[in-house]
Specification:
By secondary structure, this protein is mainly alpha-helical. Helix content is 65%, strand content 0%.
């Protein structure tokens, strides 16, 4: 899980220290965005929060089942809405 973020400095010359500081701030913001995206992709923070406290196996199964039911309900609702919008299938106005 080694995350490596490189900050590249431009090779242009700066006329003042203020310009250099602004360029460094922009590259730092870019590096932070890249680090956040990488940690989200790898699930580092999510994994840390999941292991922050001990969760009993029965509680974990209950939480996962609740999440599955929620996802299935959302999928069913989306399918119903799509069926209502398709002419001829489940939409009484389209059959007139």
């Amino acid at each position: 899980m080694g995350i490596k973020v490189e900050v590249k400095h431009s090779r242009r010359s700066f006329s003042s220290d203020d310009e250099r500081q602004k360029a460094d701030e922009k590259s730092l913001e870019f590096a932070l965005k890249k680090l956040k995206k990488l940690s989200d992709r790898e699930g580092t923070l999510k994994d840390y929060r999941r292991h922050e406290y001990y969760e009993k196996p029965s509680d974990r199964r209950r939480r996962e089942k609740k999440m599955r039911n929620k996802i299935n309900a959302m999928k069913a609702q989306r399918e119903r809405e799509q069926a209502d919008n398709v002419p001829g299938i489940g939409n009484p106005e389209s059959q007139l």
